[in-house]
Known about the structure:
Layout lengths: L34 H31 L13 H20 L9 H9 L5 H25 L20 H22 L2 H6 L8 H19 L5 H11 L2 H5 L3 H21 L2 H11 L1
Membrane topology: Multi-pass membrane protein
Main location: membrane
Family: Belongs to the MIP/aquaporin (TC 1.A.8) family. PIP (TC 1.A.8.11) subfamily.
Amino acid sequence: MPKDIEAGGRGGFGAKDYEDPPPAPLIDGHEFAKWSFYRAIIAEFVATLLFLYVTVLTVIGYKIQSDVNNGGEICGGVGILGIAWAFGGMIFVLVYCTAGISGGHINPAVTVGLLLARKVSLVRAVLYIVAQCLGAICGCALVKSFQNAHYHTYGGGANSLADGYSTGTGLAAEIIGTFVLVYTVFSATDPKRNARDSHVPVLAPLPIGFAVFMVHLATIPITGTGINPARSFGAAVVFNEDKPWDDQWIFWVGPFIGAAIAAIYHQFILRAGAAKALGSFGSS
């Protein structure tokens, strides 16, 4: 009899050659007594700070180098391709570094997706999001201190809807882009997949970083690519101009909707969560 039987006779479920972790409690007061909990929050803060520092500095550097009115060249700098690599590469590096400490979220949308899938507690999710937003603000503040002469001239790396695009288009771009990212996170960290494909050496941060890279290629011309509310919020706070604040809701609502859809799709359709629940109900 094969080990991998998702649904067996009379609605029962057979033995599996992998183990799903138990659902995280919604509120776990014991976490406050663990140093690992605070270490994880610190890791999320520092990782998001470094993420914003490198990526926003790359964006501003590109705009300086390609500004023909300021001695630059039209094809100067890293270009959109280089910016996408900066975002994807930093996510790869930082998820690799922090995955064993905090899970390597570095993004409130990822945290919300994992919360909905019961992978993290509500307490941990809230404090992660606070740490990520504070880290993003500090990272952008560092960029401003390094590029003070150019920071406001070249937009501060802040996200806003590009001219010529409707609000609906921008919102859809953020929803779909975040869905791709969070879906990749679920797939890359799925214990079932890891058990089946143990012969394939897949480093989980690698597909996650590539997902960020590919989404940036597609949506930089539309919204500058948010797919990370902390990234958009931190840049808006430090840049502090009307346009990024007016569009800020797009970079929260879109990613959270995309993350929720990805969580539902992976947990209840691909992982047959709904079928299992129905099977369990029928057997009882």
